[in-house]
Design a protein that fits this description.
The chain is built from 22 helices and no strands. It is mostly helical. The protein is globular and about 60 Å long. The two termini are about 30 Å apart.
Length: about 475
């Protein structure tokens, strides 16, 4: 790692000339933070804020579940959990816009096309308000039928709790979209610490309001939902204040609402892999869940615990991808393919996956107890065995995230889409059809891990064999 950092330093890759070199004539000039050494890797300048934002949200999700469980009971926690598919659907719709406009903005800034950066900002702001506003206005008609569909017609109490939670979530949807889109653009413009601070503001207020509304005033799931929406409002307010200061290449100076974007076709093309990723992974998990059911309630419960733990521990890999993307986008726009490859090589060498996989082999029982409590010895054995096999996915999860993001950034949507579709759905389905017959339940657990590893071998091998097409300088600059 030291040699890699030195290589970045010797190539003069530091924040001023890698992430956001600003024109001296540009009205939104930004001074560089003090205390940054030229040899410091810019990946970590982005990684730590991204990880802080994601972990703060994770901590809130855990605490929010505990509060609802203690005050409302299992139906309160179940209501929030049943809202999960709706969230996945909304994120699947929003991610193509966030990722696509992030790529377009990063390339525009790298090419010093600041007028286009402002147009992109105006477009996503307008889109967030239009889409979110449309759902918010129609939410009174949507909430109850959707709650009955998700909870089941025979579970009126749970459906009522779910409707109460969804009501405020859908009303606050414009804030959800604004925070998501603005955070993506700010990361692309070299300001990841701003998105981190906004997340911390939201989480801090949310937790305080949870204690007031849910614990103090006993408003149940509706109180928790209101707390979440107000937390998002605070985060959006923080971002508005920052953007009003004129320190970025876009903002509210000369802002005009517009639903037009000249590069909308490219936006759809660039964002397609993100949409495919969300849909494929969620479908693959559903297939695994159905495959576990015949093995009994203990196996289903074990999968629930282990999948929850793995979801939390995958957050650092998501942060690494978020950290790499703005650097890659900027350098493509600046026509510096060598720096793009150096950043990708550094990220692929990041060995966090080995640590996670080793934890799954060394202390599976401890991880299960940490999240599931001191359950029966039989359950701990089942869950521990599940975790040991399931956590092998971490051997390839990080590289797969990075490669998919890289291919998406250089304008190779086909192979970028193939990564999540293969690891999340196609290989999972094939392995589930073969492995359980010979390995039983262990084959079910291995399906996800082997799908992740198989995807890395297939995609990595194919693109390396055709490396001029995917890693050559012309291939990188063609994505500009």
């Amino acid at each position: 790692m030291r040699e890699t950092l030195a290589a970045f330093g010797n190539a003069h890759i530091h924040q001023k000339n890698l992430i956001s070199p600003l024109s001296q004539n540009h009205p939104h000039d930004r001074t560089e933070p003090a205390g940054r050494s030229p040899g410091e890797s810019p990946v970590f300048q982005y990684y730590v804020p991204a990880l802080t934002s994601i972990l703060s949200i994770t901590v809130h999700e855990v605490i929010n579940g505990i509060i609802l469980g203690r005050t409302v009971g299992k139906e309160g926690v179940a209501a929030v959990g049943l809202y999960g598919p709706v969230v996945i659907m909304l994120v699947a719709l929003a991610l193509p816009v966030m990722i696509g406009t992030g790529i377009l903005l990063g390339k525009s800034i790298g090419a010093a096309d600041y007028g286009n950066a402002q147009r992109i900002f105006a477009f996503v702001t307008t889109l967030a308000l239009l889409l979110g506003g449309a759902v918010a206005l129609t939410s009174p008609l949507l909430v109850q039928p959707l709650a009955v569909f998700l909870a089941g017609a025979g579970n009126a109490s749970l459906a009522d709790n779910l409707a109460g939670y969804m009501r405020w979530q859908l009303v606050g949807l414009p804030l959800f979209f604004l925070n998501l889109f603005w955070a993506g653009l700010l990361r692309s413009d070299g300001a990841p610490e701003v998105t981190r601070n906004a997340s911390l503001v939201a989480v801090g207020l949310n937790l305080g309001l949870d204690l007031l509304l849910v614990v103090g005033l006993r408003l149940g799931v509706e109180g928790a939902s209101v707390a979440t929406v107000l937390g998002r409002a605070a985060a959006a307010g923080y971002l508005v204040l920052h953007l009003s200061r004129g320190k970025n290449h876009f903002g509210f100076r000369e802002f005009r609402f517009t639903a037009r974007l000249a590069a909308w076709r490219e936006l759809v093309r660039l964002g397609l892999p993100s949409f495919a990723s969300e849909v494929s992974v969620s479908t693959g998990l559903l297939l695994i869940t159905r495959a576990v059911v015949p093995y009994g309630p203990a196996a289903v419960a074990a999968f629930g615990v282990v999948n929850h733990v793995s979801f939390i521990l995958l957050r650092p890999f998501t942060s690494a991808m978020i950290a790499v993307l703005p650097i890659v986008w900027f350098n493509i726009g600046a026509r510096l393919p060598g720096r793009v490859l150096e950043t990708v090589k550094f990220s692929l060498a990041f060995t966090l996956g080995l640590v996670m996989a080793a934890l799954g082999q060394a202390v599976p029982g401890w991880l299960v107890m940490a999240f599931a409590g001191n359950d029966t010895a039989a359950f701990r054995r089942v869950a521990g065995g599940t975790l040991s096999l399931y956590f092998l996915l971490f051997l390839a999860a990080g590289p797969n995230y990075i490669l998919a993001a890289y291919f998406q950034s250089i304008g190779k949507p086909g192979v970028a889409t193939a990564v999540p579709v293969l690891k999340g759905l196609v290989l999972v389905a094939l392995l589930l059809a073969v492995l359980p017959g010979g390995l039983g339940l262990g084959g079910v657990w291995l399906s996800r891990s082997l799908a992740e590893i198989g995807t890395l071998l297939l995609v990595g091998g194919y693109t390396w064999f055709n490396r001029e097409k995917y890693y050559g300088e012309k291939a990188i600059l063609r994505g500009k």
